[in-house]
Amino acid sequence: MADDKKTVLVFGATGQQGGSVAAALLAAGWPVRAFVRDPAGAKAKLLAQAGAEVVEGDLADDAAIRAAMADAYGVFSAQPSSGQGAVHNVTDEEEVRYGVTIADHAAEAGVRHLVYSSSNAARDEPSGMGHFDSKARIERHVRTLPITITIIRPAAFMEMLMMPGFGLPEGHFTFFMQPDQKVQVLAVEDIGKIVAAIFADPNRFAGETLEIASDTVTGNGLAETFTQAAGKPISYLRFPDDVLAGNPFLAGLTRLVDDGRLAGHADLALLRTLAPGLLTFHSWLAGAGRPAFHAALGTDGVWSYDK
User: Fold this and answer.
1) Confidence band (pLDDT; 50, 70, 90) for 154?
2) Within its chain, how far is the Cα of 92 from the centroid?
3) Integer Rg of the chain from CA
4) Which structural domains are found in the chain, ordered by start?
5) Which run of H or E residues covers position 20?
């Protein structure tokens, strides 16, 4: 078991992944140190109210990172992705630099266990898409360090399916896979459950690279679930060839679904044993995802990650 549940430093603690991890660790009794840019922000205040130690810092500030590492048992490392365009405005090189810097400082500080969050599309063979290959570069560096590490490779978030631009207001859902093609998806809240289990059993997961997901869906299955939830017909369409021909970013993601990288290969049976209560897409949509789904039904827009 872990070192009597000593402090875990969580990067990105006000974001999706870090927020999920911080909440799950606090619920499991771990002392959490949350690294945030704005301690006065609403999410940071909620973390403090939940019992986290909130520390101020920026990923470009080495001194702040070193100070936050002091006496930490573990570190959860997740950086803004360079694939999110204007959402974070981070370049591939900046993402690599942030990930490498956190890992190096963790090793220098004597951190006992580093968990780095990558992507299920990261491989030694380049994907041709910078925001996946940047994570592969961080993975390679992390593996060279004299520190216990675990790499997680999350599947596509269920929350991403609720973004504008997929056609729900028009009564259809357009996505990357063929109608009967299987793709794994992950509820953001499940990330924390899995990471908390990893920190609780470091010897089991030392040096491991673990794909993580909550459920497997198909395009037709999504249409059935959406139809039931909406109370009206929702059909499924794969992105048309002419759309993909005019959008290299969407075409690249579709190619990686087809070649299996983004389809996912997580061992769901293992993960459900490791972290009981992982959500199916149906249960997520009926619970935490319901407000976002109803908002998406009435929201028109464009693909937010267009690059």
Assistant:
1) very high
2) 17
3) 19
4) 8-156+188-212 (3.40.50.720)
5) helix 16-27
